[in-house]
Amino acid sequence: ERTNHPRSVPSASDSAEVLPATLFANADTPEQWQRAREQGACGVGLMRSESLFLRAHDWLDEEAQCQAFRTMAKASVGHSLVIRLLDIGGDKAWPTLSLPEEDNPALGMRGVRLLLARPDLLEPHLRALYRAASHGPVSILIPMITSVEELLALREICEAVRLDLQAPPVPIGAMIEVPAAALLADSLAKHADFLSIGTNDLTQYALAMDRQHPRFAMDADARHPAVLRLIDRIAQAAQAHDCPLSVCGALAGQPGGAQLLCGLGIRSLSMVAAELPPVRAALRADSVDTLVERAKRALAADTLAAVRSLTEETG
Ligand code: PEP
Ligand code: MG
Hints:
binds magnesium ion, phosphoenolpyruvate--protein phosphotransferase
C-alpha cells in the first residue's frame, strides 16, 4: 500500500492567477530551475538524474550524487522537487558503464529493469537521494515501470535504504510511459504515492515508432487518438484512487497539448522554462468547459489528423 505521504505541492491558488493546471519545471540543474521559477514554475516536476552522469561523462559516487541532489533540494525549499531515478539504456546510451550489447535496447535492459538488476548502481543512488532529502522537498520517481511487481520491489529497496539511514520517508511515484503501465494505472495508483505520465516513451511504445527515427519521429505524435485514450484511462484511474497525477512528457509543454491534458482533467504539467509562457497563455485563452469539450472531441476522433486540427484551432 502506498504511504499516502502528503506532497508539498503548492496549489494553483498560491499564485496570483488561477490556471486550470499547476505548472512545474523539467529542470536538471539549479540554473534551469531558476529560469523556470522566473517564468512562474511552482516546483521541479522532473529532474532527469541521468543528466548528472551524462554531463560528468562518468559514473558519480554516492557523495558526488548527494552533493548534486542536495544543491537542487536546497534550491527547491518551499516548492517541490521530483527526482527521477537513473533512466539509462534504450535511446539513453551509456558509454562508461559496461552494459550488455543488445539487439533491441529499447526493449531490453533499461530504466527500472536495469536498476533492479544492478544493486551496485541503485544502492549508492538511493542513499544519495535519501541523504539529500533532509535538505529539501524531494520525491522519487521510478522510470519505465511495466508492472506492480517492479514498483513494489523498488519500494522495498527504498525502504531498506531509508531505514538504514534513519531518513524520513519521501513520496515514491511511478512513471507511466509504457502501454502496460497505462493499462495497469489503477493498480499502480494503489501502490504509488503519485504518477507521472511520460508522453514521449508512451507514444513511442504505443505506436511502435522510435521517437528518434529519422522518418517516423514526426508521426510519433502524442496526440494520436490511441495515445490520448491511454492518457484518458490513466487520468481516470488516478482520480478514482485519489492519486496525484502529472504529465512530464513533451505534450505538456505544447500549448495545444497542455490544453488537451487539462481537458482530460490533468491538473499538473511539467515542462522546460521556455515552454511555460506559451502554455500559460494557452491555458488562459479558453474556459475549462471549452477545454473539456475539445478533449472529448479529440478522444472520439478517428485519426491523428483530426486531433491535430482540433488542437491547432488555438495552439
Ligand atoms: C517521457 O518519456 O515522456 C519522459 C518524460 O522521459 P524521457 O523523455 O526522459 O524519456
Ligand atoms: Mg521516458
